Each structure stands twice: as C-alpha cells, then as structure tokens.
Amino acid sequence: MIFYYLLEYADFKYCLMVVLLLLLLTDIIKNKNPPRFPPGPWPLPFLGNVFTGLHFRTIDKEALVTQLDSFPDRPVIPLFYKAFKGLGVISSNGHLWRAQRKFVVTHLRTFGEAKKNLETSIQQESVFLCDAFKEEGGPFEPHFLLISAVSNIISSLMFGHRFNYHDERFQKILRLDAEAIILSGNPQALLYNAFPRLFEYLPGPHQKIFANYEKIVDFLKDEIKKHKEDWDPSDPRDYIDAYLAEMEKKKSDPEAGFNMETLVVATLDMLEAGSESTATTLRWGLLFMMKYPHIQEKVQAEIDRVIGQSRQPTLDDRANMPYTEAVIHETQRMGNIVPLGFPKKACKDTTLGGYFIPKGTTVTTNLSSVLNDKSEWETPDTFNPGHFMDDQGKFRKRDAFLPFSAGRRSCVGEPLARMELFLFFTSLLQQFTFSPEPGVELSLEGQLGFTYSPGPYRLCVSPR
Fold first, then answer.
1. Is it the case that residue 319 has pLDDT exceeding 80?
2. Exposed/middle/buried for residue 448 (C-beta within 10 Å: 0-12, 13-18, 19+)
3. CB neighbours of residue 6 within 10 Å
C-alpha cells in the first residue's frame, strides 16, 4: 500500500515536471527574438525583465524622431488599461486618438492661450500658492502645495473652478493619485502586466493602484454630473461643457469615441499629465535652488532687475529673463521627470539603428540618453544653466532638449506647462529665498514611479 502511494506521488511529480517543462518551452518559443533583434538583458521565464533592475540612466538607444510613421501607437499595458481603457489621448490609437487629441488641442487654444485666460489664472493661483507658503511656520514639505496649485489650473480648464488648498476631498484625490504614480514603478505592481488574469485575484500594490483610480474616477464622475445638470450648450464654460457639446456633434461618428466613458478618461488624462509632471518639475526646481544657492541668487537678481517687487511676473517678461529661462530648462533636463516616456508600439516592421523591430513590438524611448548625451551637453552630469546660454548671455534653444518627448506622441500640454513653469517658478523666487532644513544634507537622487521625482524633502522659506 505504501509503495502504491509512493508510486502515485512520483507520477504526480513527474507529470508536474513535464507540464512545467512544456510551459517553459512554450514561453521560450513564444518570446524567441527574430534575427537582428536589438540586444538586451536575458529575460526570466514567464516574468520577462520585471526584476532585471535596469536603471534608465544605463539605457542608450537611438531616438525615434526620424521614425514618426513607424511608432504612432500605444501598446496595451494591463496595469493602466484597467483605469484608462485605451481611451482618451494618452493610451488610445488610430482614429479615436486623432479625434481626441485634436479636440484637446483646440480646447486649450480656445479656452486658454487665445483669450489670455490661462496667464491670468496662473497669476492668480501664484498668489494663493505664495500665501500658502507664507502660512507655513517652520520647515515643510512643499509637494502637495505645489501639486494643488498646478492642479487648480487644470481644474479651472476642466471644471470651470479651482479648489481651496484645505478642501479635504480634493487633497485626498491628489494624495491618491500621487500614491498610485509612485506604486506604478514597483516591481511587484509590474508583475500584473505579465500575469493580469492571475494577479487580478491576488493582493499586492496593483490592487492599491486600482482602488485609488476608482476613487479618483468617482470624483471625476461627480464633477461631470454637476455639469450635466446645469449645462447650457450655447455657453460652454470649460472643457467638460465643450466635450458634452462635441458628443452631440459626433453622434454620427461613434469611432471618434465622444461618449461619457471617454469623457471620464479624458479628464483623468488631463489630471495625470497636466498636474503631476509640472508639479514634479517645480519640486526639482526648488530642490536645485536650495542645493545651488549661488544660482538662486542670480535668478533673484534678474527678477529684481526686470520685474522688481511691485508687480507680478508676466509671460512677456520671459524674453528679458534669459538666465531664469535657462535655469528652468536646466531643471527640466536634469530633473528628467519622464526618462522612459510612455511606451510606443511599432505599427509595421521597422529597422531602427540597424536592428529589426517586428510589427507589434513595444518600444520604450529613452529620453534620458538625449538629455544626458555627452556629445550634446558640455557638462551633462552637472546642473549648469550655461547649457542654455550663448556667449552673449542670451537664451539659446537646444535640439537635444526633449523633456516633452518628440514626434506625434509628444505632450499636447507643452505650451501650458511652459507657461506654468515660468510664472510659478518666477513668482516663488520673487517672493522667497529657499534653504534646506537645518542639519539636513540634500540629496539629488530621485525615485522612479510613473515619473522620476525628488525624494521627500522639507524646505525653509525666507520672505524677500
């Protein structure tokens, strides 16, 4: 009897081993690289390169700006697909993407730059932000004050109103979003991309990401519901009103995706892309100013000379403030907040850098290889505003400056982000001198989630 059970157990182990070997063989065949495929780290069976530990600073690839027609699409990324569903602008493709992107660009132009509304909105928000900084007693963490200010610009565009910095519901949404962004870089969360069906039922950071996005989506649905209750098609107040009108116009073109589900994702897009990236850049900016006080002093000297203390900065001041512009651009270069961009997908068989990229291959563009290219920048590893100054002390553009990505998938909110960065940064440096918390050594090592952001830090402000 004992022999029988041992034999049965051995048979079970044998069968299990055969199944595992077959699965391993299937995985190897399925993921076998075609001839002339780009080299890379050896992927683990079933897991791929989730735990490879590559850092974005060690990956150098040819830029994709010369292959615009080959990489216009987004791949399906399960970790984000659950919330974004392949809709909106960030994760959509084809006709839907073109229609949604065109609408966003038109909306920003109509409600923003053309009417000068955005500049006024940012100036007003700068006053609220500076007042909030003044209210802080000792060393404080500026993260959520900065993201509140930047988010209020998007909120004004999207919802037609801003939120008080002490609005508990709004602050909760910002914290949920910040947590999801950090967690999205966690290797355990990335395992969901390899086994979405399995990990759907397992605990882990991916479940926290999903739960956070569900609460954010509920918040957005409430805002949309309020708009629908008092919507006047003849008098659009903001993005949501304009989108509701577009839904009526595009009923005959359902493939364009103008419906309630896409509207929710589109507003999530704008909060995600329009708030986090700019606020993170400002956090890097204040960190660099504390780390390099002599540069902070030069920025303030230019502000005093061009603007003074009797009025607010305006966008017209940019032309007369080359050093401040250079510092902001160098902050974007060194901060490098989206080093790997958002993945793209080859829509056809392509040759890139002499390597063969089959149709359907997911490609990650390493922007950091351009922003830190030793052949493009005199001192790529040093914070040096001189990278953007010519011999006459004037601001100069650089072709290798690509913080907003490049090609057809470059950030549609770049003009808005540039306005916010200049007005917020200049207003803060006009009003305050920033210094680190006493006894604390500042670190320039960031943390990589969906974006590359500074580690938590506290600062001290001295009114000027």
1. yes
2. middle
3. 10
Q: Tell me, what's the pLDDT at 314? A: 96
pLDDT value of residue 15: 59
Classify strands 446-448 and 452-454 as parallel, antiparallel or unpaired. Answer: antiparallel
d(CA 69, CA 75) in angstroms, rounded, equals: 15
Phi, psi of 448 (to 5 degrees): -100, 115
Long-range contacts of 360-366 (CB under 8 A, 24+ apart): 362/75, 363/64, 363/71, 364/340, 365/61, 365/63, 365/64, 365/340, 365/341, 365/405, 365/406, 366/56, 366/59, 366/60, 366/61, 366/339, 366/340, 366/341
Please give the pLDDT value at position 104: 87
Is 104:89 a contact under the CB 8 Å cutoff? Answer: yes
Question: Which residue shows structure tokens 């940019």?
Answer: 318
Average pLDDT across the chain, whole number = 84
**CA–CA separation, 438 vs 69, rounded Å?**
53
What are the residue ranges spanned by the domains of the chain?
Answer: 1-32, 78-316+412-463
CA dist., res. 70 & res. 67, Å (int): 5
φ and ψ at residue 456, rounded to 5 degrees: -55, 135
Q: Which of 427, 396, 156 is nearest to 314 (CA)?
A: 427
Give the 3-state secondary structure of residue 357.
strand
Q: Identify the pLDDT of residue 258.
A: 93
Smallest CA-to-CA distance from 369 within 19, 41, 5, 58 is with 58
Cα–Cα distance for residue pair 448/454, rounded to 1 Å: 9
Identify the DSSP state of 73.
B
List, for residues 364-413, the tens digit of each pLDDT value: 777 777 788 888 889 999 999 999 999 999 999 988 887 776 666 667 77
Instruction: Please give the Cα distance from 113 to 109 (Å, whole number).
Output: 5
Global confidence as pTM? 0.84
What pLDDT shows up at residue 3?
Answer: 46
Per the CB < 8 A criterion, the answer to whether 129 and 123 are in contact is: no
The CATH code of the domain at 78-316+412-463 is 1.10.630.10
Percent of the chain at pLDDT > 70 equals: 81
Tokens describing residue 112:
């923003």
Residue 221 Cα distances to 181, 218, 268, angstroms:
21, 5, 10
Let me know: does 166 contact 179? Beta carbons within 8 Å. no
What is the DSSP code string of 114-159? GGTHHHHHHHHHHHHHHHHHHH--SSB--HHHHHHHHHHHHHHHHH
**pLDDT (average), residues 433-445:** 93
